[in-house]
Specification:
The structure is a single chain. By secondary structure, the chain is of the alpha/beta class. 38% of the residues lie in helices and 18% in strands. It contains nine helices and ten strands. The strands form two sheets. Strands 1-2-4-3-8 form a five-stranded mixed beta sheet. Strands 5-7-6-9-10 form a five-stranded mixed beta sheet, sandwiched between helices. Strand 9, helix 7 and strand 10 form a beta-alpha-beta unit. Helix 5 packs across helix 9. The termini are far apart.
């Protein structure tokens, strides 16, 4: 078994050919576990803010893709990757984030976790966007909207059963990710919804563009990835569903 570690822009982008044709094609027991993914790289700017890595890794046959939400989840993901035969991608950021899980949490590949139950909209998120999703749920509660927050820690394989059950209950969804809206978690949830539970889905993520240099929280607001943007997306999703 081998682990690799680097900035995500190098660990997936520069090494993509080796990951595809050596690791995945031969189903080798290699774990790709870079840090500094997404715009949380901050001042390093667009050249180092990797926003298409989930799409790249998700498209590879045999690759599992995990995006932990906090330190405890990241530690659990590394342990889980080590215990799982074959290729695994663990995506980690740079920014400090609030604790979501207990220190001794054990997670599973192929599982999503309902962090807050709700009835009016489903917010599916992962990574650093979990903190924004939970903050958005608090803001929505003040408006009388009950949001269910689901941590899609495992992007591939996706927990279709848990997410579909939430969509069937709330009848609309928002997917929030610190990643391009093309090919990542949002695409995975839309594919699932189209197949088993067609409902309006709004996407919060990077809109076909590169990042910029700046502080993490500043960039979240600038690119529309913060809690306020999620609340706005919820209003659109609920309007499209005829719920408001």
């Amino acid at each position: 078994m081998a682990f690799t570690g680097s900035f995500a822009v190098f660990g997936t982008g520069r090494a993509y050919d080796q990951i595809r044709n050596t690791v995945c094609y031969s189903n080798l027991n290699v774990k790709i576990a870079p840090t500094h993914a997404g715009i949380s790289v901050g001042p390093d700017g667009g050249s180092h803010q990797m926003l298409e890595d989930v799409s790249l890794m998700r498209g590879l046959p045999g690759m599992r893709v995990l995006v932990p939400a906090d330190y405890a989840a990241a530690r659990a993901a590394i342990k889980l990757a080590a215990a799982t035969p074959g290729p695994v991608y663990v995506r980690m950021g740079r920014a400090a984030v609030p604790c979501v899980y207990d220190d001794d949490v054990e997670l599973q590949i192929g599982r999503a976790y309902v962090l807050r139950e709700g009835a009016d909209v489903t917010i599916v998120a992962n990574g650093v966007e979990i903190r924004e999703a939970l903050a958005a749920a608090d803001m929505l509660a003040e408006r009388g909207v009950s949001a269910e927050v689901v941590d899609a820690f495992s992007v591939k394989p996706l927990d279709g059963e848990t997410i579909a059950a939430s969509l069937a209950k709330t009848r609309c969804a928002v997917v929030a990710e610190e990643h391009s809206v093309v090919g990542g978690l949002g695409s995975a949830v839309c594919e699932l919804a189209a197949q088993v539970c067609p409902v309006p889905v709004e996407l919060v993520g990077m809109r076909d563009r590169f990042g910029k240099s700046g502080e993490f929280d500043e960039l979240l607001a600038y690119f529309g990835l913060d809690a306020a943007a999620i609340v706005e997306a919820v209003e659109k999703a609920r309007s499209r569903a005829g719920l408001c």
